[in-house]
Design a protein that fits this description.
The complex is a heterodimer of chains A (about 375) and B (about 475).
Chain A: H1 5-14, E1 19-22, E2 36-39, E3 46-50, E4 55-59, H2 64-73, E5 76-77, H3 86-89, H4 97-102, H5 110-113, H6 116-119, E6 120-127, E7 132-136, H7 148-152, E8 160-168, E9 170-171, E10 175-181, H8 186-197, E11 205-209, E12 212-219, H9 221-234, E13 241-244, H10 250-253, E14 263-269, H11 274-279, E15 285-290, E16 295-300, H12 305-318, E17 320-326, H13 329-334, H14 343-356
Parallel strand pairs in A: 1-2
Antiparallel strand pairs in A: 3-4, 4-8, 5-9, 6-7, 6-8, 10-12, 10-13, 11-12, 14-16, 14-17, 15-16
Chain B: H1 8-12, H2 14-22, E1 30-31, H3 34-37, E2 54-56, H4 61-74, E3 78-81, E4 98-101, E5 108-112, E6 117-121, H5 126-133, E7 138-139, H6 152-158, H7 165-168, H8 171-174, E8 175-181, E9 187-191, H9 202-206, E10 215-222, E11 224-225, E12 230-237, H10 240-252, E13 259-264, H11 265-275, E14 284-291, H12 294-309, E15 315-318, H13 322-333, H14 335-342, E16 344-347, H15 357-371, E17 375-380, E18 388-392, H16 399-416, H17 435-438, H18 441-454, H19 468-481
Parallel strand pairs in B: 2-4, 3-4
Antiparallel strand pairs in B: 1-2, 5-6, 6-10, 7-11, 8-9, 8-10, 12-14, 12-15, 13-14, 13-17, 16-18, 17-18
Helix pairs in contact in B: 10-15, 11-14, 15-16
The chains are: A alpha+beta (about 375), B alpha+beta (about 475).
């Protein structure tokens, strides 16, 4: 059992073949890779929490639920609202903070507060040769040397095995409400969301789900009451607006309406391109939009390599990326799960992987064949 | 400050390099007359100077690509330069280098309010990015003190912060995409108007890489609608400890001010003399600013002053008007000019966990006595980014060197308490030799591996960030290959 960073460094150094890096085992995403299991889940626990400094440090295998519970005691939270893929993917186990950061898993509040990568202040990791490396720290402003924290966030364990992460956290809020506008098509929805997001009222979630636009306001009770009224004025003519104090944003965050789909994609584009992505989908696809239209979740019945290729080609033309989040292993093995990169960018990414993991043993092929 | 010995082989090729650069750039964009290259001999860290071999001022991405390709072929080091406002020596030339200034590239290329971004050429100044969108109610959030002069190119290179980053983040949190020209002339587009990377987050590592990975010629920046209003409250306390405890309580109460600024007694006096801001003469002064509608501001300031009162403030002044707000900020914003009028000074930039503020301030006070050099403290208290200003006399032999030693000790103290050497100014040459204090050999090796990937010949700004002894083998390989 790997219980310490040294254990992991030793295990990687001694490895003779490919390794499958796993936190809680909740994210069966990416091109299936084969190899010995490297289980980080026993490297667990919050090692430092300073509420007055808005900082928490935890070992990579710490369950997100444990971190959220710790923060809740001080009325603080992970502001980037990490999504939970367990229901969609039919996986069990605990989502770990290492898994969240290494996949840059951000939910609806990304549009206002930032992504997982924006809240990661420091990391410790073991590279593909078994070296222990630290970068960043536990302070909010740090430009000391290159920012490898960002590079590790979103690397899906292909550059190193994260062992510890320090995060910026934010105060919780006194109150929340959601403005709901029913019966909008995607173009109307993005029009309304853009008006709301271009206002000074600090909308912390802007989604199109079940044919309705949801706009979230968070803060002090008096403040969100005022802002809700002000937003209604901004949105005059957009449709009938109702206030839903109990809107369940985990439906948006985890793309719950698509949980029954066989194949699910997560697409990041310029918000105004969201409707075009949806319009180009083949028959039988469902979708929802988050991030004001900039994040499109798409679900399809069945598994269709041609649909995948068409989607990535379309998104390439728009500027953005489409990732296959859920699909049968056969499909994930046959297609580029992550959006193929422009040649110059792909060359840099490949060269970085070759330097951080010279033997090519960390989740080989997961992000790019 | 030690810099590498200029490469005589490069210097001997000067005429050919200039001729080749003239073949791809307009005549006035290649500067090689020593009387003119002197204009580029330093940045805002004026204690160190060295005129470059040549300075070039390309006007397009294609011209930047041509310049870099030629320098790559000729084995000439290139030092990129934004507006030359670096406090860390990030744009300090070497005698054998080509300075690549982006000042002629300052257009706004695209403004998109529906998608809330602007795309600009990176020679554009920080403040003029906001200037291009503010008539429509928008702004670009990162606001370094030098924002009137500093270029977006430099902001990206140093991952610049500012007074308002407690709420809005620093450059990396507001940068969506770049056009990057690599040392061999290759142009790549990274990121764009969409959010987050579909692959490795190259944008994240380019931002803050101090011009060592490539030259960023265009940038897509997130813009936001301006808040309805903003107003500060000024509070004075009997000690830094009390002010620090007040900051922690404000943050824990769930208010997230847009800025929390701290000044100590020495700075208060100097600023008061200079700006007549009507500051109370006390040990520690805080300026806390919140945003929103008038009613929202009133409510937040009421909560903040209630917390402040629990800490026995010796002064408490809530702004009720734009004039009062301007007055409260006048002293803080003039801090660097004010102290510059009385003294030569070195501005440090270490960041510490907020909880360590009282201890670190006390230690700095003790060290100030030991070294016999006065220190003023002004900094962003919400995020622990300190700016101790160490005063010295440039005309007094040995004083600068003493100041450097003192400064290094302060930065080591920041690392010792769990912080870092630099929060927003960058490493440059100034903190270069302290990097081994914060990072182990393997940590630095991992960072240098990134540079190897982007700039295999180590020609871009090569004598910065990493201690010379640490980067020497890589730079030596390059010299030998010529």
């Amino acid at each position: 059992m790997l219980k310490t960073e040294d254990d992991i460094a030793g295990y990687v150094a001694d490895a003779t073949g490919p390794l499958v890096v796993r936190g809680g085992g909740t994210r069966a995403v990416g091109r299936p890779s084969q190899g010995d299991l490297l289980d980080v889940s026993n490297l667990s626990g919050v090692t430092l929490y300073e509420p007055g400094a808005l900082t928490i440090v935890a070992k990579a295998g710490t369950p997100v639920s444990e971190i959220e519970k710790t923060l809740a005691v001080e009325n603080q939270r992970l502001a980037f609202e990490p999504y939970d893929l367990r229901e969609m993917l039919g996986t069990a186990g605990e989502t770990t903070i290492g898994g969240v950061i290494t996949t840059n898993a951000s939910g609806p509040r990304r549009i206002q507060g930032g992504a997982a990568r924006d809240f990661a202040l420091g990391v410790r990791f073991v590279d593909g040769a078994g070296n222990v490396i630290k970068n960043g720290g536990r302070v909010m402003k740090n430009v000391t040397g290159y920012d490898l924290v960002k590079l590790m966030a979103g690397s899906w364990g292909t550059l190193g095995v994260m062992t510890e992460v320090s995060l910026k956290v934010l105060p919780g809020v006194e109150d929340v409400t959601t403005l709901v506008i029913d019966g909008l098509d995607p173009a109307q929805a993005v029009g309304a969301m853009s008006r709301a997001l271009a206002s000074p009222y600090e909308v912390s979630g802007a989604a199109w789900i079940d044919g309705a636009v949801w706009l979230r306001l968070e803060g002090f009770t008096a403040s969100i009451a005022y802002r809700a009224d002000a937003l209604k004025t901004v949105l005059t003519g957009a449709g009938n607006i109702s206030l839903e104090p109990n809107a369940d944003w985990s439906r948006v965050r985890d793309a719950q309406p698509l949980h029954g789909a066989d194949t699910v994609w997560r697409v990041s584009v310029k918000p105004s391109d969201g409707p075009a992505v949806i319009a180009a989908l083949p028959e039988g696809c469902d979708s929802l939009m988050d991030w004001g239209g900039g994040l499109v979740w798409i679900g399809q019945t069945g598994a269709d390599a041609a649909a995948h290729a068409a989607l990535q080609a379309h998104v390439a033309g728009l500027g953005g990326h489409a990732t296959l989040i859920k699909g049968p292993e056969a499909l994930r093995a046959a297609v580029p799960v992550f959006q193929p990169e422009q040649a110059g960018v792909a060359a840099l990414s490949a060269a970085l992987r070759a330097r951080f993991d010279p033997r090519g043993i960390l989740n080989p092929g997961l992000m790019a064949a | 400050m030690e810099m590498p010995v200029p490469d005589s082989a490069v210097l001997s090729r000067k005429a050919r390099v200039v001729e080749r650069l003239r073949s791809v750039l307009p005549r006035d964009a290649v500067i090689d007359d020593p009387s003119e290259t002197r204009a580029y001999e330093c940045d805002a860290l004026t204690a160190y100077r060295c005129p470059p071999m040549v300075a070039v001022l390309p006007a397009t991405t294609a011209e930047v690509s041509d310049v870099l390709r030629i320098c790559h072929q000729e084995g000439v080091p290139v030092v990129p330069r934004g507006s030359g406002t670096s406090l860390a020596g990030g744009a300090l030339p070497t005698a054998d280098c080509v300075i690549l200034g982006v000042a002629r590239m300052n257009d706004v290329l695209e403004t998109d309010y529906d998608n809330r971004f602007v795309r600009v050429q990176t020679g554009r100044t920080n403040l003029s990015v906001t200037g291009a969108v503010e008539s429509d109610g928008f702004f670009y959030a990162p606001d370094p003190s030098s924002q009137l002069a500093c270029a977006i190119a430099g902001n990206i290179a140093m991952n610049s912060g500012g007074a308002h980053c407690l709420k809005y983040g620093v450059t990396t949190n507001n940068l969506m995409g770049v056009t990057l020209v690599q040392m061999d002339g290759t142009v790549v587009e990274i990121g764009g108007a969409h959010l987050d990377s579909g692959g490795l987050d190259l944008l994240g590592v380019i931002c803050g890489s101090e011009g060592q990975l490539g030259v960023v010629t265009e940038a897509t920046l997130r813009i936001l609608h301006k808040p309805e209003g903003a107003r500060p409250v000024l509070m004075g306390f009997d000690s830094a400890e009390i002010a620090g405890a007040c900051v922690a309580d404000i943050i824990k109460a769930g208010v997230l001010p847009v800025a929390i600024e701290f000044m100590d007694k020495m700075l208060i006096e100097v600023c008061e003399d200079f700006a007549k801001a009507d500051y109370p003469l006390c040990e520690a002064l805080l300026i806390v600013e919140v945003e929103g509608s008038d009613a929202e501001i009133d409510a937040q300031l009421a909560l903040i002053t209630e917390i402040a009162k629990r800490h026995d403030p010796v002064a408490l002044r809530e702004s009720a008007s734009a004039e009062e707000s301007a007055r409260i900020w006048a002293g803080r914003k003039a801090a660097f000019s004010a102290i510059g009028r009385v003294n030569d000074y070195m501005c440090l930039d270490g960041t510490i966990p907020v909880s360590e503020l009282p201890y670190v301030l006390r230690r700095i006070g003790e060290m100030s006595k030991e070294y016999g050099l006065a220190v003023g403290n002004v900094f962003h208290a919400g995020d622990g980014n300190m700016h101790p200003l160490i005063c010295y006399d440039a005309n007094k032999p040995g004083d600068l060197e003493l100041c450097e030693v003192f400064g290094a000790e302060v930065l080591k103290l920041c690392v010792d308490v769990g912080g870092c050497l630099t929060g927003e100014h960058g490493v440059g040459i100034e903190k270069r030799d302290l990097m081994t204090y914060q990072y182990a050999a393997a940590d630095l090796e991992a960072q240098m591996a990134v540079k190897d990937v982007f700039d295999a010949k180590w020609l871009l700004n090569p004598a910065k960030v990493f201690p010379l002894a640490v980067s020497e083998p890589r730079r030596a390989v390059q010299m030998a290959a010529e």
